[in-house]
Design goal:
Blueprint lengths: L1 H13 L2 H13 L2 H7 L3 H20 L5 H14 L7 H10 L4 H26 L11 H5 L16 H10 L15
Helix pairs in contact: 1-2, 1-4, 4-5, 5-7, 6-7
C-alpha cells in the first residue's frame, strides 16, 4: 500500500514513471520503514499501518479530493498513533489555500473529532481517564532508572528542563565493555 501510494503521489509531481518507481522503491526499502514493516513488534506494526493510512489520505487529496474520505483516513491514522493527527494540518492548510469552504472543511474535521471522542471514551472506560492511553502502565517505563518522573506524568511541562539539558548540554554516554574499555 505504501509503495503504491508513494508511486501515485510522486507521479503527480515527477512525471517520470521510472523516477517515481525509484522514489517509491527507496522510500519503502531504503528507509527505516522497511525495518518497521518486517519486525513483528506490535508498536512497529501500528506505526507501519499509520504511515500507510496517511499515505492513502495524501493519494486521495491529490486525486479525487473527497474530504469525508480524507477525514476518515486521518481519523484512522490518529487512532493508530495520536501524533499522526498532525497530518490534518496539511489538509486544512491546503483547503484554506484552495478556498474549499466551510462545508468541505467540516466534512474533513467531523470524522476526526468523532474518532478522537471515541478514543477518549475508550481510554476512560479502560484506564479511568480520558487522557491515559496505557503508556504509564508499561513495565519498561516503571523499571527505568528515572521511573520516579512518572509521578509528574509522561507529557508534563516539568520535564522540559531535563530534556533541554540532555539535548543540548549533555554529551553522549560512553559504551563500555563488561571488563572495562570503550566499545567504538
Amino acid at each position: 500500500v505504501v509503495f503504491l501510494s508513494t508511486y501515485c503521489i510522486s507521479i503527480k509531481f515527477i512525471k517520470s514513471k521510472s523516477d517515481s518507481l525509484m522514489l517509491a522503491n527507496f522510500f519503502v526499502f531504503g528507509t527505516v520503514f522497511y525495518f518497521t514493516s518486517l519486525i513483528n513488534i506490535s508498536s512497529l506494526v501500528v506505526e507501519t499501518m499509520g504511515v500507510a493510512i496517511v499515505m492513502l489520505s495524501i493519494v486521495e487529496y491529490f486525486s479525487k479530493r473527497r474530504w469525508i474520505l480524507i477525514g476518515l483516513l486521518v481519523a484512522a491514522a490518529a487512532i493508530t498513533r495520536l501524533s499522526l493527527l498532525a497530518s490534518v494540518l496539511f489538509f486544512i492548510l491546503m483547503g484554506i489555500q484552495h478556498k474549499i469552504g466551510i462545508k468541505k472543511l467540516s466534512l474533513l474535521i467531523f470524522p476526526i473529532v468523532a474518532a478522537l471522542l471515541l478514543l477518549f471514551l475508550y481510554n476512560d472506560r479502560r484506564f479511568n481517564s480520558f487522557f491515559e492511553s496505557g503508556y504509564s502502565f508499561q513495565t519498561a517505563v516503571n523499571t527505568y532508572p528515572m521511573s520516579s518522573n512518572i509521578k509528574f506524568g509522561l507529557f508534563s511541562y516539568k520535564h522540559i528542563a531535563a530534556n533541554v539539558y540532555n539535548l543540548f548540554l549533555r554529551g553522549p554516554d560512553p559504551v563500555l565493555e563488561p571488563g572495562g574499555g570503550f566499545v567504538m
